[in-house]
Each structure stands twice: as structure tokens, then as C-alpha cells.
Amino acid sequence: MSNLALYLVTDTALCGARGVLATVIDAVVGGITTVQVRDKTGSDDAVLRLLLQVAGAVGDRTTVVVNDRVDVYLRALAEGAAVHGLHVGQGDEAVARVRDRVGPDAIVGITANTPAEFARVFELPAGTVDYLGVGVIRATVTKPDHPPVLGVPGFAKLASTSVLPCVAIGGVGLADVWPLRQAGAAGVAVVSTICAAPDARAAARALHREWTR
User: Fold this and answer.
1) Per-residue model confidence as pLDDT tens digits over 70-120
2) Does residue 21 lie in a domain region?
3) Model's pTM, two decimal places?
4) 105: annotated binding-site residue?
5) Element holding 70 (H helix, E strand)
6) Which end of the chain, N or C, is less surrounded by CB atoms within 10 Å?
7) Is 37 one of the annotated binding-site residues?
8) Residue 121 — φ and ψ, nearest 5°?
9) Is there a binding annotation on residue 39?
10) 132 and 4 in contact (C-beta within 8 Å)?
11) Residue 204 lies in a domain
12) Under which main EC class is this enzyme filed (predicted)?
């Protein structure tokens, strides 16, 4: 299993002129351990190009997954890229089908934000899902249609019922990192904290300091 501790979800718009690739490279130098390439509006070809760039730059130093796009993941593998898996949401392709398509070695994560969603995941055969993305911790502009805010206490309550690692996501700020680790988080996922930061490397280092203090 990959190191989920410091998990970056990319946002092409927030990275701005600096670009996703440069942001990811700096973030990995700063301590990011998993990168999820996510672009909900880009074409499959555009996301594949970005994924190949990211994997080529950092795939030997960190875990690289792609959001939702099973076909893109499989095409990247066929090109020999160091891509390790993918993350799917509740509205994406059924995770059992995803596992069938990608095989047993890929890392597969799924978003789960409620007890009912947790229960559905736990009904799946062992090995279908590797980790859960759980949130939102705080209201966030990067996901305006987000589910109800959990806060750290709500996350802790859900995570305590899980047999799978839980990564906290959604509005996670620097001050939330240590409380979330104490609450049982296997990792914290951030978007704007790094993508919108003037210095992505410094932002990642700050997250790393909080996680390891």
C-alpha cells in the first residue's frame, strides 16, 4: 500500500500559470507522498498527457493515481508510465467494476462520506477497495456541491468504524493536519492549500512538519 499521509489532489485552474507539473514537482520535493491527477473538465487525451508528465517526473518518488478515468489509467500503463492506481467517487463507475478492469495490483480508492456509503464499501469483497477518501472536513470552494461538513469530530467517528485507511479531504488546512492524524486519519488530502499557494514546496513542507510533529 502507498503512503497516503500527505496527499495532493491537483487542480488545473488553481495551479494557474505555474502549471500542474511544476506544482507537483515542488510539492513532492516538499514532502507530498501521493499525487492524484484530477481534471474533471479536460478530455481523456489531455488528462493522459498530464498524467504521463506527472508520472514521468515524480512516479519513482511518490504514488501517482488518476481521478475517475479508468481508460486513461489503462492507457498510461500501456505506455509504461509509473502510475499506481486511481480514485473514484460515488457517482463514477462502480468500484467493483473498476477493480475488475484494473486488476488486483492497482491502488483503488473511493470517496465515502456517510455511514451508508461506508456500509456499501464494506459489503464488497476484500481487496476491492484500498482506502477511503472521507470528508468534507470544512466547507471548500473547490467542491461547491460537497456533502455536509464533518469537522474533525465527525471524521473521527466515521474513521473509527473503518477497517480501511481513511484519508481526510475537503477544506483541510494546516491547522487541521495534526488533529486529523490524532483522530485516526491515515492521511490528509489537500487541493488549494498547495495548488493555490505562492510556493508549493514551502506549503508541502509546512504540511509535512505538522503531520510529523
Assistant:
1) 999 999 999 999 999 999 999 999 999 999 999 999 999 999 999 999 999
2) yes
3) 0.96
4) no
5) helix 70-78
6) C
7) yes
8) -65, -40
9) yes
10) no
11) yes
12) transferase
3 is in an annotated binding site: no
Residue 205 sits at φ, ψ, to 5 deg, of -65, -40
39 pLDDT exceeds 90? yes
Query: Quick check: 196 and 14 in contact, CB under 8 A?
Result: yes
| CA R_g for the chain | 16
The pLDDT tens digits of the residues spanning 171-182 come to: 999 999 999 999
The annotation status of 176 as a binding-site residue, yes or no, is no
| CATH number of residue 107's parent domain | 3.20.20.70
Cell 499506481 belongs to: 84
The reply, when asked if residue 24 is annotated as ligand binding, is no
Cell of 93: 463507475
DSSP β-ladder status, 34-37 and 6-9: parallel
Q: Which residue in the block uniquely carries the three cell numbers 507539473?
A: 21
The verdict on whether residue 65 carries a ligand-binding annotation is: no
Task: Please give the pLDDT value at position 147.
Answer: 82
Burial of residue 157 (CB within 10 Å: 0-12, 13-18, 19+) is: middle
pLDDT of the residue at 139: 87
Confidence of residue 144 (pLDDT cuts 50, 70, 90): low
Residue 1 has pLDDT above 60, yes or no: no
Residue 140 labeled ligand binder: yes
Residue 110: domain span: 6-212
68 Rama class: left (phi>0) / alpha (psi -120 to 50) / beta: left
The percentage of residues in the chain with a pLDDT greater than 90, rounded to a whole number, is: 92
The number of folded domains in the chain is: 1
